[in-house]
């Protein structure tokens, strides 16, 4: 496989009924020697409200390729941090390792590339008395695997985007824009 310089992908996996566990990771994959590696190294400091951490599956089990994760929502509580650094981080890590196992990520390049994953963890999860942590794991695992696969395949393709320009629209545009 040739060098991987700059690949992007995203995915959304929806929560079970009554949960706020939708997962919407956005991934950036590239060479540790290129712009992704520079961005990765630049994330080593912390930004208030947007914790950055290496993805680990458990203590002393940092994933390869080296992956940094951060949040899209501002962290406001310890309960949120515990979900992010617990269930969500573990799901993300498991998905990355499984992408190595199934060949989505090339094992032979695991030390030559790095990834940045931006995580959506709904702030309502931290205070949800009936939070289904298994669903939180499921959505983040499935969405991370899908986002990585899309990045590695450069999906959706330009042809797909052009073909569905008038048939697919952002959910927030319902009643706002008519594509007919």
TrEMBL record:
Q: Gene3D superfamilies recorded for this chain?
A: Formaldehyde-activating enzyme
A single GO molecular-function term is: carbon-nitrogen lyase activity
Q: Which SUPFAM superfamilies match?
A: Ribosomal protein S5 domain 2-like (SSF54211)
GO term, biological process aspect, one = carbohydrate biosynthetic process
What name does this protein carry?
Aldehyde-activating protein
Q: Name one Pfam family in it.
A: Fae
Which keywords belong to this entry? Answer: Lyase
Q: Does the keyword Lyase apply?
A: yes
Lyase among the record's keywords? yes
